[in-house]
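#structure-requests
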Amino acid sequence: MHISMDRSLWIRNNPIAGSYKFRFHQYDFDSDPSSMEDNSDMNELEEELISVERKRSPKIVLTFLSIIILVTAILVGITLSDTNDSSTNSGGSEMPPLQEQADPDEQDPIEIEAEANVALSPIEKGEVVILGDPIPTDSEIGYLAPAFKAQLNDGTELVTVDPADGTVRLIGFFAHWCPHCQREVPRVSKWLEENTIPTEIEILAVSTAVREGTPNYPPSEWLTKERWPTDIFVDNQDNDLAAAYGLAGFPYWVLVDATGRVVHRSSGELTEEQFGYLIELGISLIPQIT
């Protein structure tokens, strides 16, 4: 006969069960003692399996946790490596983004100002065009002074000077390396600063015979340092402007009346009194303008 009963009920009613150490939920067994022995053997086997599983479970859990930690460490390492690469590339090896090409009509005002400054930087030699017959190299007067085109030492475009345009002009020619010019230029600059010149008289300076590596080069800086107050023209490589006005030595002065005729010329160093005399002579020519 087969009996089916709950484990707890069977344990309470069967004193033999107290000597067995096993667990089960529900079993079918015979009332025959041999059946109970077989069943107890099965329970002992189950206990052993459960015990083995319990021993294995911590190892499995530890193994699983180790795998998770290892994978996490690998992922963190990859992330840090990518971050370092990005930082290194941003430090200078990365190619900068292409800049949009600026519209030529929309130039930066700073660039335009820089170009203007370059164009107006001082020059030591320039272009010269003689528009008349040169006067001979002597002390004679009465020749018609030739008109000319030349550049100022600030680098501007050609400026035309016509001696017959109704203005009295006193033109001085200087060489920066000439000792007499080095003494006369500051002397004349001081005289012009301390005295008033009629507006009908124009005083011009010409920088000529420029030589690199000689005293007071570049002449533009020298004349600026000496505070020369009037316009300064620059001669060309061949000194054509000095030759056209009959230069014989340095310093050289030419006084031209309002009709363009040479009324005085001299070479050599002038004193303040001698330069003042040239100004008075020029003033005496002013009535020709009216």
